[in-house]
Amino acid sequence: MAVKHALVIEDFYLIASMLQDCLKDYGYTTVDVASSQAQAIEMAEQRCPDLITADDRLEQGTGIEAIRHICRDQAIPVVFIVADETNVKKMLPDAILLLKPYSESALAAAIKLAEATPFVLEHAN
């Protein structure tokens, strides 16, 4: 079995914990959780994720800027999980979005789509 690593960028503990559990159920062997933009970038530099889920608004920084930094040199599957899609649609119109609250089946579908179409920085320009 291949080892798959995910990064969750989310500053709300309950959501991060639920995502961590779901991602393990979906075959991600390890899952790191970052609650800030800087922490997300540092974790991704230490271990490149095979999938990232990201909230756009964090208490410290933004998920959008973290993704722009992390994905500047490589394509990685990304799912933005947000309460309001306005910022992400404006800044990253091709991003895969999942609105909170979401169902597990919607999360699974978004992950499958992200895995098929990894985020590339050109989408951010």
How do the strands and helices of this protein lay out in sequence?
Layout: E1 5-9, H1 13-25, E2 30-34, H2 37-46, E3 51-54, H3 63-70, E4 78-82, H4 86-91, E5 96-99, H5 104-116
Parallel strand pairs: 1-2, 1-3, 3-4, 4-5
Q: How many beta strands in the DSSP annotation?
A: 5
CATH topology: Rossmann fold
Low-confidence stretches: none
Q: Encode the helix/strand succession as letters.
A: EHEHEHEHEH
Summarize the biggest pleated sheet: 5 strands, parallel
- Mean pLDDT value: 94
Look at the structure and give the CATH class.
Alpha Beta
What would you give as the CATH superfamily? Response regulator
Q: What gap, in angstroms, lies between the N and C termini?
A: 37 Å
Give me the side-by-side strand order of the main sheet: 2-1-3-4-5
**In angstroms, what is the radius of gyration?**
13 Å
Supply the number of helical segments.
5
Strand content: 15-25%
The share of residues in helices is 40-55%
How many domains, in number, for the residues? Answer: 1
**Which structural class do the helices and strands define?**
alpha/beta
Global shape:
globular
Name of the CATH architecture: 3-Layer(aba) Sandwich
